[in-house]
Structures are given as C-alpha cells and as structure tokens.
C-alpha cells in the first residue's frame, strides 16, 4: 500500500504503469523528518520523497541551483509542498560499495558541481558563526579563528554550490556515472565542506586522504594550498550546522542523535584549533 502523499498521476506517467495497484513500492528511508520510496513498474522506476523541517526545501534548492546550473543531480519530475518525484539514478551507493575508485569518482563529481559560477549572497557569511554558536549554546572554546578564516575566504575564493550532505549514502551510481542525491541542505559558500565530509568518511573506512584531495585538486584545476584552507573552514562550518541540527531538530526526529553532540563538539574544537 503506497502512502497517500505520493502524487499518483506523476508516478503513473513516469513508470508507464496502468494503475497504482501495479506499482511496486520499496521504502528506502523513514525518519521523523523524511520518507523516501522507490516506485517501480517493470524496468522503469522513480524516487518519491516527502520532507519536513530541514528536509522540506529540496524543491527550492532545485529551482535555485540544481536546474539552472544543470548540476549532476536526479532530474526533478514533480516538486511541491515538501513532496518530490525524482528520476531514479541508480541502486548502488558509495556507502554500499565504498571502494577507493568510488571515492575518487566522487571527488570528480564534486569538482563538476563546483565548476558552476554562482551569483548572489553567501549562504554562510562570517557573522553566521556567532549566530549558530548562540543557538547551540554549549561551545566553550574561541571561534574567532574560524570567523577570521571564513571572512578571508569570502574575499579570496569564489562562491560555489555546497551540497551540504556530501556523504557516501548520497552518492549513487548506475554502473556508468555517479550522481549526488538528496539536496535539501544545498546553499552557496566559498569553502569546501563537501570535500571535508567525503574525506572524513573515506578515512573512517580505511582509505587515504591524500589521493582523494589530489584528485579533486586535479579535476577542479584548484590551488592546493587554497583547497586545504577551504577544507578546514568547511569542516568547521559543517560541524556547526550539524550541531545546530541535532540540538534543534535531530533529538526530536532521529532516535539516538543526542549521542552525536559530544563527538561533533570535539571535532569542531580540533578543526578550529588547526585554523589558529
């Protein structure tokens, strides 16, 4: 039985199914703030998503960045009121098959995303550091080095799209190409939090950091010294955003997420310390 929020007419047109009873539904994720289904008929399938809270703005990110910039993301078939129907871009994620080649391909994919110039104001200006710290309310160390480094990057580096959750579970392959999925947290900034999270997970899985960063630098034609600073600043900003999410929303929607707070605080302190 498919949930009632799924737009049946869109699914029928995309899959070619004669009616909804003929559509096979596979629940891929169900959290307090999001629900994701794969809907298939024969060889044709789509992804249907419903999001609330921080997961509800993916259609806006598509309208603002993904579509006009032609980013490597699933094609949007329908989007309204927190519900999306998307092209199904593959069944294998980097989380399921965390190979070294997969992480290198993800670095290439990130370089492609960041190749598009983005006009408009930053989604993470320097003053946001203090604002997020106030919302989190339990940071006992000095964030001034981060604020200063972030301000410098806004002067020295171009703004590019930040996926916001560039981690193995959101990197999907159909066997030929890789695609970044799950874009509700997208915004623009001059740092590299996406490369930070990609490398963070790769190292946790036993891969070396160096080849992944080197692959990104080569694919993007970037200055390696600037990339190192962008990764550090991006890592600290990622930790701030993750902490704000857990404190304000995660503890309510994701069981056990309160256990993430202390490790994230320690990680933030470590990264900010490297900026000092």
- Strand order across the largest sheet: 1-2-3-5-4
Distance between the termini: 55 Å
Average residue pLDDT = 95
Helicity range of the residues? 40-55%
Task: Tell me the major beta sheet.
Answer: 5 strands, antiparallel
**Strand percent estimate:** 15-25%
Q: Supply the CATH superfamily name of the largest domain.
A: Aminoglycoside phosphotransferase (APH), C-terminal lobe
Q: In CATH, what is the class of the largest domain?
A: Alpha Beta
Overall tally of domains: 2
Summed up, the helix count is 9
Radius of gyration using CA atoms only: 19 Å
Q: Could you tell me the number of beta strands?
A: 10
pLDDT under 50 segments (min length 5)?
none
Overall form: globular
Overall SS class = alpha+beta
CATH topology term of the largest domain: Aminoglycoside 3'-phosphotransferase, Chain: A, domain 2
Q: Architecture of the largest domain, CATH level 2?
A: Alpha-Beta Complex
* H/E element sequence: HEEEHEEEHHHEEEEHHHH
Pfam families: APH
Protein name: Phosphotransferase
Domain Aminoglycoside phosphotransferase: 68-210
């Amino acid at each position: 039985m498919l949930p009632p929020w799924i737009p049946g007419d869109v699914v029928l047109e995309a899959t070619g199914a004669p009616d909804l009873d003929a559509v096979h539904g596979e629940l891929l994720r169900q959290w307090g703030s999001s629900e994701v289904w794969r809907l298939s008929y024969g060889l044709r399938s789509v992804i249907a998503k419903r999001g609330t809270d921080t997961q509800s703005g993916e259609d806006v990110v598509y309208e603002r960045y993904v579509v006009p910039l032609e980013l490597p993301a699933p094609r949007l078939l329908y989007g309204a009121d927190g519900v999306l129907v998307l092209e199904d871009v593959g069944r294998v994620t980097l989380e399921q098959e965390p190979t070294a080649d997969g992480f290198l391909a993800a670095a290439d994919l990130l370089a492609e995303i960041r190749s598009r110039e983005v006009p408009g104001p930053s989604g993470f200006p320097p003053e946001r550091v203090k604002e997020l710290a106030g919302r989190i309310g339990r940071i006992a160390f000095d964030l001034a080095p981060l604020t200063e480094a972030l301000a410098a990057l806004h002067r020295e580096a171009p703004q590019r799209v930040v996926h916001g959750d560039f981690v193995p579970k959101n990197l999907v392959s159909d066997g030929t190409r890789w695609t970044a999925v799950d874009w509700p947290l997208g915004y623009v900034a001059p740092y590299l939090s996406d490369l930070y999270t990609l490398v963070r997970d790769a190292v946790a899985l036993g891969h070396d950091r160096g080849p992944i960063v080197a692959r990104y630098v080569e694919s993007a034609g970037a200055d390696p010294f600037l990339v190192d600073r962008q990764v550090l600043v991006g890592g600290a900003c990622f930790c701030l955003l993750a902490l704000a999410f857990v404190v304000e929303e995660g503890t309510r929607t994701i069981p056990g997420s309160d256990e993430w707070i202390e490790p994230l605080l320690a990680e933030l302190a470590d990264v900010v310390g490297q900026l000092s």
